[in-house]
Amino acid sequence: MADIEEKSAGKIKRIYTLFLIASLICLFVTTILLYLGYRSEVGPYVILMFVFMAFSVRASKFWSVTGFTLWVTAFVTAAMFYPGIFTNVGGVETKPYIMNIVQFIMFGMGTTLSIKDFKRVFVIPQTIIIGIVLQYTVMPFVGKGIAMIFAPNPEVAAGIVLNGSCPGGVASNVINFLAKTNVALSVTLTAVSTLF
User: Fold this and answer.
1) How far apart are CA 82 and CA 128, in angstroms?
2) Which stretch, 20-29, 37-46, 97-106, has highest mean pLDDT?
3) Spatial distance between the Cα atoms of 137 and 8, rounded to a whole number of angstroms
4) Cβ contact 161:147 at 8 Å
5) DSSP at 152
């Protein structure tokens, strides 16, 4: 019985290794295409790189916590390169429903918080100050770096830089909620940076 389990574990580990190799091949192809100036052709390779990485990290207990982040990155990358897939689902425009979905998500997250959560945040105000400073110093430069590497055209690049310069929003709060981090701090940072 133990021998069968050992063989099964070995097979699974080999599959995860193949996913890692496939992600490295996609990274290599992306690098070559970018070097040769084919920025608009790198989309599928970048998306597949993140998908393969998301599968490969499941082999390690240490790296498996990054799986969710890699899946989110894969979908964000897909939306950047192929926005039409996400704006029209089954012939239905998604734009009119976005605000309702955002309100529903924020209400749902708000019901999970209490006054005590926010009291804990305001006990240590330096976390808010650090968050605001990072918001307006590091994030615009990260946005510029991402735009320089991945943006297929100048309009998308400008959007990425502007998005990096904006205060946090619903997405950051949702990610914090799903990652089981300090949602009250995230909501507070979103509110304070928006007011700032």
Assistant:
1) 36
2) 20-29
3) 49
4) yes
5) S
Number of H helices, E strands in the chain: 10, 2
What digits encode the pLDDT tens for the residues 127-183? Answer: 888 988 888 888 888 888 888 887 778 888 888 888 887 877 777 788 888 778 888
Write the single-letter amino acid at 67. Answer: G
pTM over cut 0.70: no
Q: Are 13 and 59 spatial neighbours (Cβ–Cβ below 8 Å)?
A: yes
33 and 41 Cβ atoms separated by less than 8 Å: yes
Taking CB atoms within 8 Å and a gap of at least 24, the contacts of 103-110 are: 105/170, 105/174, 106/170, 106/173, 109/173, 109/174, 109/177, 109/183, 109/187, 110/187
Report which of 72, 75, 52, 55 is spatially closest to residue 64, judged by C-alpha positions: 55
- The pLDDT, as a whole number, for residue 26 is 94
Query: Measured between alpha carbons, how far is 188 from 46 in angstroms, rounded to an integer?
Result: 33
29/109 Cα distance (integer angstroms): 40
CA distance 61 to 174: 24
Distant-in-sequence, close-in-space partners of 139: CB < 8 Å, separation ≥ 6: 164, 165
Give every CB contact of residue 12 below 8 A, 6+ residues apart in sequence: 59
92-93 and 88-89 beta bridge pairing: antiparallel
pLDDT band of residue 49 (cuts 50, 70, 90) is very high
